[in-house]
Amino acid sequence: MELTERILKGDRRAVARAITLIENDATEKDELLQELHKHTGNAYLIGITGPPGAGKSTLTDQLLFLLRKQGLKIGVIAVDPTSPFTGGAILGDRVRMNDHALDPGVFIRSMGTRGSLGGLAKATKEATRVLDAYGIDVILIETVGVGQSELDIMNVADTTTVVLNPSAGDHIQTMKAGIMEIADLFVINKADLPGADKTEREINNMLDFIHDFDWRPPVLKTTVSQPASFQAMWEACCQHRTFLQENGLWEKRRKQRRQDEIVGIIEDRVQSRIRHWIEKNPSWQQILTEVEAGEKNPYQVADLILEWYNTSNCD
Predict the structure, then answer these.
(1) 276-to-116, 269, 271, 288, 315 alpha-carbon distances in Å
(2) Consecutive H or E run containing 173
(3) Which of 4-8, 114-118, 265-269 has the lowest mean pLDDT?
(4) Which residue of 13, 21, 189, 192 pairs with 55 in a disulfide if CB–CB is 3.0 to 4.6 A?
(5) Model-level pTM?
(6) Are residues 136 and 163 in contact, defined by beta-carbon separation less than 8 angstroms?
């Protein structure tokens, strides 16, 4: 496939085109991803999540400056919420990271959630495959920032960073049943504001109640006025990566993600084919009428459709 060859040769336009095909669920995307698969698995994926207003985009921007100075090739996938009315998204992260727009060593892509829950767009995981094959060293994935539903990132990133701000006390209380448990690293951003030390104590106190983690997430403070604070964050990420690799958890996590990805592909394809069968089957409306009349129940119908699927593949 010509597009595959262009991506592997470092063609930025080909990468942008490929991600567009993925977002639009184009028919050729499966062939593309199959061809790219053997060239993936080298990039380090860092998830950046947390509540709105925590400064995730600013933190990502600072990391870009830092990592580019180290000569690393960086990809950014910034997920923005999609309007339920227009279907559009603000996609403002590329504007906020405008200083990097012309840097050939940085590829930034914003994408709307398009109705997906969990803080990520449906196409996020597949987009990381394209960037990985393109030769990106570190992929920063900035989630939409919707609070406790931001759990999808743990199934994509190697290291998940939860970003909070000094006034995060209420957020911590609401998140502790969910997002707090997915963090590999806590970052209190805007740490030059009042309350940073208090927030740090609150997070550490909560971590003290958790005794079953192999890796205790470090709690760091960052501020734009102190560039060294972002260096400390990057070093903590690298320490986490080393921890995973030395304890066999790196491959274990990635193997689990591959399994989840395969199951997800199967579910999508089965669902798509069953919906196609429903749309073209003339007896479907009669089946619904029988369910409404109590002559059949939904479980019987579901079993019947699955039986048809297994015997005829719904063709």
Answers:
(1) 21, 10, 9, 16, 9
(2) helix 169-175
(3) 114-118
(4) 189
(5) 0.85
(6) no
